[in-house]
Specification:
mainly alpha; homodimer; 300 residues; two-stranded antiparallel sheet; Farnesyl Diphosphate Synthase; 14 helices
């Protein structure tokens, strides 16, 4: 007989897989509903979206949206929109003038298939379509979602984090600097994913604050683990080459704290995320809590 | 004594200058109201916005917004937002992998000052901030503006036109192909500028259709003249090197129709724009009509 623990593990794995399926369906529905422009562009726009991925951000939209009482139909637009934004950021990050990556999730990057100019334009197009999707989904809360998504994705969020990350290459960056990069580059968008779910559900301010607290902590935990995996990871698990951050002389937590220190920091953020989930009244079996354990244990 | 014609010319010139001043003030107010992120990014974001320009798009937001009864305070957000989008498109167009330009409006391009990676991120940031601005301006019509701006700027508009323009380089492109590029690459955003003004004013559907007809025709006239100027222009007037389209083997109207044919087409679009303005009940002295004559006569 399976132990309760392995039962709960199996339930979580099923939830993860179902999240990927649901997110993929949201993306396909979004692509159907949008005018993707000239056929040569439409093909290139679909390519990075259909290259797979964990679909963490749309799954978080769904997780908090459902937990707080939103209908699925209210969550599909924002879920697709945030994955469009995440995907655009990967396409631009991979460009020769940025991280110069030929492979992403084990397949050739968008610009290596379609050329650098189209790579820039695919990113621009996905970012623009994310906002078109929110406008299209309508509803009284869509404008608020536009603001939350734009702030998380723009200069005071992800784009700002990218600039800091580039500026930190080859420089001595203090720990506060590394944490700021993580907060902007990674955690802001994960926080926004959780918040979009809460907005769709019409959650009150107190509830939204707790949801954001969870998302920010989860994002910081995610990025701390990412820094550890760059040192300890296996390229077959990661689907990318480990040691890349060190080779590029990127500012990482491991550089400042050592591997054990970075791991301890990841655990502290995990506990902060659990605390926020409990504040929302979510029990230990809730996927928001299991997700924290899974992120801590992840190998890729 | 000045002739009525030179009086009206002087009034138009004053209107143009006042449009630039007003647009610059909207941009500054927008920059003040937004979080521009890390200081190194904030500086780079301001750079292309403050490099000057005709401010045609925000002036069109104002022109139709006022003509149809909107308050100035309702027009400032959308006016700044559309100039953010136009400016992002210039920053990305100038990148080495796109048109590879070192000069724009007579000053070094963003990526030549701040590096290519920051050039990509400044464009991404400006595009994202445009939607944040609309969300921030609030109001019942802001979500509709998000949709109109996104459609005009994205794959079914400007970004799509860029992809077609790149694909047409060095190819035989038929006239319909060139016109499609012009419609998407240039006219869609000019049409959206006019429509944003109409939306801010709460104009009815019939009125909005006429406003869009004007904007589309004006944009196509603008681009037809641009093609002519690339052949006949003077580099001192243009602030850029003429003959660049031909050198890059770009698809142009002049290539397909000859200079005189392209000029005739510009005049046909000008007449279409005038007709739309008359349909809106605007008299011959209205700036919407004078703007058409000015675009036809422009040298830069």
């Amino acid at each position: 007989m399976a132990s309760p623990e392995s039962d709960s593990h199996a339930a979580f794995e099923a939830w993860l897989r179902e999240g990927v399926r649901w997110s993929d369906a949201c993306l396909q529905e979004a692509l159907q509903s949008l005018d993707l422009g000239p056929v040569e562009l439409a093909r290139a726009l679909r390519y990075p979206l259909e290259a797979g991925g964990k679909r963490l951000r749309p799954s978080l939209v769904r997780l908090f949206g459902r937990a707080l009482g939103a209908q699925d139909s209210e969550l599909q637009g924002p879920a697709a929109a945030i994955e469009f934004v995440h995907t655009y950021s990967l396409v631009h990050d991979d460009l020769p003038c940025m991280d110069d990556d030929d492979l992403r999730r084990g397949v050739p990057t968008t610009h290596s298939v379609f050329g650098e100019a189209v790579g820039v334009l695919v990113g621009d197009g996905l970012l623009t379509l994310a906002f078109e999707l929110l406008a299209q989904s309508g509803g009284p809360r869509a404008l608020e979602m536009v603001g939350v998504l734009a702030r998380a994705a723009g200069p005071s969020g992800m784009v700002g984090g990218q600039v800091l990350d580039l500026a930190a290459e080859g420089q001595i960056t203090d720990l506060e600097g590394v944490r700021r990069i993580h907060r902007l580059k990674t955690a802001a968008l994960i926080e926004a994913a959780c918040e979009l779910g809460a907005i769709a559900a019409g959650a009150d301010d107190g509830c939204r604050t707790a949801v954001r607290r969870y998302g920010l902590a989860l994002g910081l935990c995610f990025q701390a683990i990412d820094d550890c995996l760059d040192v300890t990871g296996d390229s077959a698990d990661l689907g990318k080459t480990p040691g890349k951050d060190a080779a590029a002389d990127k500012a990482t937590l491991v550089q400042g704290l050592g591997l054990e220190g970075a791991r301890t920091e990841a655990e502290a953020w995990a506990e902060e995320a659990r605390e926020a989930a409990r504040q929302l009244g979510l029990g230990p079996d809730h996927m928001a809590l299991q997700l924290v354990d899974w992120l801590l244990a992840r190998r890729s």
